């Protein structure tokens, strides 16, 4: 120690030290220059790279847009309903990847009708694989209650898995921001996007349910499951959000299950006394038409559900389902 | 194979098993999920859990019979649990090894010498046991605060596992949150880091379970000791002594954790595991002074009434302490809950949280529902928490009991509390905005939340008719906000005639009513119309509400929720009821 203090600084060491000091100062200066921010942070951060949900619809065939099948056995009625529209092959081609979006909102057993019936999901999965030759079928939703519990208790997770489909549960990084062109509410809003990037076709399957705020929850309301973030605030303007969902999502096919209709205490139900047998199942390429038919099963008129007219006016479909000449059939 | 190798294999095995049980405590039927794994096994082996609940309840809850196996084995073999089974002990063992491996033998001998302060753990034990022992002053089971098995269980399940799982999502899809996890982590981290100061610091100075073993191993048939008194006195046998029990000199049997390092380190094979006492002398009793014993005994007896001076079990009970379904009455609950966190770990919605001290010191880390955290309140069709509770502080109820159906129909459903509406924060009540998300999500049938319809005239919502037709009204004013009333929630109210019709659109100076509907009486020019918003205002049916908290979780008023559950009316308590029984 003392030795060093006594020692004069020699030229070599001085130069070395000066060189190191110079490099350090230069590094600090360059770093400051590169990181220099003359404006400070902006007030809010706009979402980067908004995404748009692809269009999954198939070409129209006149008088083959909607079918209504009466019967109690959902596997049979859905088979018939799809067959009447030209068969599953019209919608799903060999080797395609399909997503099915049932209503899995609540952790509730299937018999209570608050969620899409598992046998219905399983049958559509089966059709996609065995009849159409789909490569992969996903079943997915972003439920209200705990997702894993919803898929387990509704029976959909098991039924889909047994039929060979893969269940996708929502993860934080599956949500991307979107802005709906012409939309008032869906602006810079996170949607459940990731599963829909890897598919060719999208099929929505929803039960007919009473819904105290909007009047009825059917195939259009089913897309509420695609909304992320604090989606509950949209209840302040429920009709507009449902109409915008119908504008945002362009499914290949929707299936509306009115075999047992939840007449009261919706959308959760909770008792089989809330359900009524109506024995009707609708398949449609036009979800506005499907829901316009479906509201009749609840004893409602189209004008009782303002979102139907809004969606109609926005061009998402027609409330005048009769103009589509729905194909009627009955299976026993 | 050397005995220390066998010990290491045992430690790795039991530690791995412990971690495995933590991982598989996820509801599901896959191999890595709960199915039938005995995830409470380590807690059941823990004699302190059994003894503690026996002292408070005077009964031995049947799954805790496993502790008898450990007690019997300890009486025969000594403190084998500490160095062969205990996962927390293995962590300390390993951390102490890592932290001190580069030290010289002389330093290690110094580190691992016996210290007088090792008696502190006995005082900790005495305090906890006496807190539990006297029902006359209010028995409470607080051993779980420092009992190593509950401590390590909650540290892994509520802190380490959620952090590790956040990137792989094996145990949960969305990640888990635990409110006071920072404190659990701080204590765990401190305990582990103290190994850098003195190896097995926690085991030697704090661990009440180790203290319990230290008391009961005095009759051990086999014990560590020198097989002859005379030796070269190199003290290498103390170099890696985990218990700090001075095997070279007067052997302290109660401190020995049976690590067997001394057998391995003695170059002359003069230390052995033997039936006779050490020939260098041994001390079987814990080294505690009479004064220390009396002081800790008195502290334990006084601690409970001191803590309860806060009157948290009486009229000052804390309304946010909402217990999971199946919880015993608060006093019986506190006599059984060991704060292990198994219920919080298994809860599929993550709503069960480790409690803080707002509800009193005794509430710390006990299960409390926080409906703001997790994927939804307490799920209607779930009874998972009670099924994993090791001490039945949460009874293993059946779904039929929770829902009040079948054989439990006459008792009605289990209520966790009651939801209260905060009308000044509620959108339809305070701000005239439609909402009723709470009503929609109420899982009870018929719903415990119902609505009453009302029509409120909007601000500056009175207009003068300029001209009207069957389904449109042109107004004198031209300042209507464009399309604002087109949402389907607004109505045109005609004062004369008391007629109300739904609006479907508006411009700045006209409104249009529902297609297919017409005014019964077309309003005359110069008359007034009002624009009204249709509101469904929520009400809570207190007799139906079960306090599940789904409404609170879903309420879009996301700061301080406009509907909140409070523990009044909970089934488990008779003195917190709200309603007269009809």
Task: Walk me through this protein's architecture.
The complex is a heterodimer of chains A (332) and B (582). With 332 residues, chain A is α/β, with parallel strands linked by helices. Chain A has one domain: Rossmann fold (3-Layer(aba) Sandwich). Chain A is 31% helix and 20% strand. Chain A has helices at 2-6, 11-35, 74-84, 88-91, 118-131, 147-153, 156-162, 238-248, 287-297, 306-313, and strands at 66-70, 97-102, 136-140, 166-168, 175-178, 189-192, 201-211, 215-217, 253-262, 275-284, 327-330. The model of chain A has no long low-confidence stretch (mean pLDDT 94). Chain B has 3 domains: 3-283, no CATH class; 330-416, Alpha-Beta Plaits (2-Layer Sandwich), CATH 3.30.70.20; 452-540, Thrombin, subunit H (Beta Barrel), CATH 2.40.10. In chain B, a hairpin with a 3-residue loop joins strand 8 (449-468) and strand 9. Chain B is elongated and about 120 Å long. The A-B interface holds A 106-109, 144-149, 152-153, 169-172, 211-213, 230, 232-233, 235-240, 264-265, 267-271, 274, 301, 303, 306-307, 309-310 and B 27-28, 169, 172-175, 348-350, 374-376, 379-382, 427, 433-437, 439-447, 451, 487-489, 502, 504, 514-517, 536, 550, 554-556, 558.
Fold blueprint:
The complex is a heterodimer of chains A (332) and B (582).
Chain A: H1 2-6, H2 11-35, E1 66-70, H3 74-84, H4 88-91, E2 97-102, H5 118-131, E3 136-140, H6 147-153, H7 156-162, E4 166-168, E5 175-178, E6 189-192, E7 201-211, E8 215-217, H8 238-248, E9 253-262, E10 275-284, H9 287-297, H10 306-313, E11 327-330
Parallel strand pairs in A: 1-11, 2-3, 2-7, 3-4, 7-9
Antiparallel strand pairs in A: 1-10, 5-6, 7-8, 9-10
Chain B: H1 3-23, H2 41-45, H3 47-57, H4 66-77, H5 80-84, H6 87-100, H7 105-111, H8 120-133, H9 148-165, H10 181-193, H11 201-206, H12 208-216, E1 223-226, E2 251-252, H13 261-265, E3 271-274, E4 282-283, H14 290-307, H15 330-334, H16 342-346, E5 352-354, E6 367-369, H17 384-388, H18 399-403, E7 418-421, H19 427-430, H20 437-441, E8 449-468, E9 472-475, E10 490-494, E11 499-506, E12 510-513, E13 528-540, H21 550-554, E14 563-566
Parallel strand pairs in B: 2-4
Antiparallel strand pairs in B: 1-3, 5-6, 7-14, 8-9, 8-13, 9-12, 10-11, 10-13, 11-12
Helix pairs in contact in B: 1-6, 1-9, 3-4, 3-8, 8-12, 8-14, 9-10
């Amino acid at each position: 120690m003392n030795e060093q203090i006594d020692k004069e600084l020699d030229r070599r060491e001085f130069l070395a030290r000066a060189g190191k000091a110079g490099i350090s100062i230069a590094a600090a200066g360059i770093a400051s220059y590169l990181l220099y921010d003359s404006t400070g942070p902006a007030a809010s951060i706009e979402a980067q790279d908004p995404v748009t949900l692809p269009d999954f619809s198939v070409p129209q065939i006149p008088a083959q847009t909607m079918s209504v099948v009466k019967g109690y056995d959902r596997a049979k009625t859905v088979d018939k309903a799809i067959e009447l529209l030209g068969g599953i092959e019209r919608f799903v081609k060999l080797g395609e990847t399909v997503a099915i979006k049932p209503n899995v909102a609540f952790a509730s057993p299937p018999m209570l009708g608050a969620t899409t019936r598992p046998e219905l999901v399983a049958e559509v999965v089966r059709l996609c694989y065995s009849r159409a030759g789909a490569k992969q079928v996903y079943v997915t939703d972003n439920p209200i209650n705990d997702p894993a519990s919803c898929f387990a208790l509704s029976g959909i997770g098991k039924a889909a898995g047994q039929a060979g489909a893969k269940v996708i549960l929502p993860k934080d990084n599956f949500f991307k921001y979107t802005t709906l062109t012409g939309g008032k509410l869906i602006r810079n809003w996170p949607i459940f996007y990731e599963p829909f990037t890897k598919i060719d076709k999208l099929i929505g399957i929803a039960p007919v349910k009473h819904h105290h705020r909007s009047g009825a929850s059917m195939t259009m309301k089913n897309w509420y499951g695609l909304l992320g973030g604090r989606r509950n605030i949209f209840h302040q303007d429920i009709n507009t959000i449902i109409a915008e969902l119908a504008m945002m999502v362009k499914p290949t096919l929707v299936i509306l299950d009115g075999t047992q209709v939840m007449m009261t205490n919706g959308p959760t139900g909770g008792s089989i006394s809330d359900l009524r047998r109506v024995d009707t199942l609708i398949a449609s390429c036009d979800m506005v038409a499907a829901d316009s038919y479906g509201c009749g099963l609840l004893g409602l008129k189209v004008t009782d559900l303002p979102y139907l007219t809004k969606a109609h006016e926005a061009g998402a479909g027609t409330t005048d389902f009769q103009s589509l000449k729905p194909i009627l059939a009955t299976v026993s | 194979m050397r005995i220390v190798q066998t010990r290491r294999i045992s430690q790795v095995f039991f530690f791995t098993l412990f971690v495995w049980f933590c991982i598989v405590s996820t509801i599901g039927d896959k191999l890595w999920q709960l199915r039938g794994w005995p995830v409470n096994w380590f807690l059941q082996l823990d004699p302190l859990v059994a003894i503690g609940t026996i002292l408070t309840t005077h009964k031995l809850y049947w799954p805790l019979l496993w502790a008898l196996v450990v007690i019997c084995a300890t009486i025969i073999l000594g403190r084998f649990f500490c160095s062969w089974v205990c996962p927390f002990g293995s962590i300390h063992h390993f951390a102490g090894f890592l932290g001190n491996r580069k030290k010289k033998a002389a330093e290690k001998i110094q580190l691992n010498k016996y210290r007088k302060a090792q008696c502190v753990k006995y005082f900790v034990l005495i305090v906890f046991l006496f807190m539990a022992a006297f029902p006359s002053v209010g028995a409470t089971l607080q051993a779980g605060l420092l009992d190593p098995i509950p401590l390590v269980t909650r540290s892994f399940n509520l802190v380490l596992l959620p952090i590790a799982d956040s990137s792989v999502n094996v145990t949960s899809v969305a990640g888990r949150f635990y409110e006071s996890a920072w404190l659990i982590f701080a204590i765990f981290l401190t305990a582990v880091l103290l190994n850098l100061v003195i190896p097995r610091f926690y085991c030697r100075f704090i661990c009440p379970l180790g203290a319990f073993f230290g008391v009961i191993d005095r009759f051990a048939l086999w014990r560590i000791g020198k097989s002859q008194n005379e030796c070269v006195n190199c003290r290498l046998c103390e170099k890696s002594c985990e218990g700090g029990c001075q095997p070279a000199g007067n052997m302290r049997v109660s401190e020995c954790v049976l690590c067997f390092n001394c057998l391995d380190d003695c170059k002359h094979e003069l230390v052995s595991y033997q039936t006779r006492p050490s020939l260098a002398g041994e001390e079987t009793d814990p080294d505690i002074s009479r004064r220390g014993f009396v002081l800790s005994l008195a502290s334990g007896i006084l601690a409970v009434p001191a803590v309860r001076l806060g009157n948290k079990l009486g009229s000052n009970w804390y309304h946010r302490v909402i217990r999971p379904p199946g919880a015993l009455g608060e006093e019986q609950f506190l006599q059984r809950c060991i704060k292990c966190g198994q219920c919080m770990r298994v809860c599929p919605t993550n709503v069960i949280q480790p409690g803080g001290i707002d509800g009193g010191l005794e509430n710390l880390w006990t299960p409390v529902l926080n409906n703001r955290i997790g994927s939804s309140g307490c799920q209607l069709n779930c009874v998972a928490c009670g099924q994993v509770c090791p001490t039945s502080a949460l009874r293993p109820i059946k779904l039929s009991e929770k829902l009040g159906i079948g054989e439990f129909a006459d008792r009605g459903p289990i209520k966790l509390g009651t939801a209260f509406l905060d009308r000044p924060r509620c959108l339809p009540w305070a701000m005239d905005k439609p909402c009723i998300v709470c009503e929609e999500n109420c899982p009870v049938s018929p719903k415990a939340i119902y609505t009453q319809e009302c029509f409120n005239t909007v601000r500056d919502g009175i207009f003068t008719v300029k001209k009207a037709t069957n389904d449109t009204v042109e107004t004198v004013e031209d300042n209507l906000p464009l399309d604002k009333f087109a949402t389907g929630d607004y109505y045109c109210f005609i004062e004369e005639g008391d007629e109300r019709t739904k609006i479907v659109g508006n411009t700045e100076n006209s409104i249009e009513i529902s297609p297919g509907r017409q005014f019964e009486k077309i309003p005359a020019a110069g008359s007034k119309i009002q624009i009204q918003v249709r509101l469904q205002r929520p009400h809570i049916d207190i007799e139906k509400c079960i306090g599940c908290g789904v409404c609170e979780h879903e309420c879009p008023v996301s700061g301080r929720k406009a509907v909140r559950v409070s523990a009044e009316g909970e089934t488990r308590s008779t003195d917190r009821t709200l309603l007269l029984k009809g």
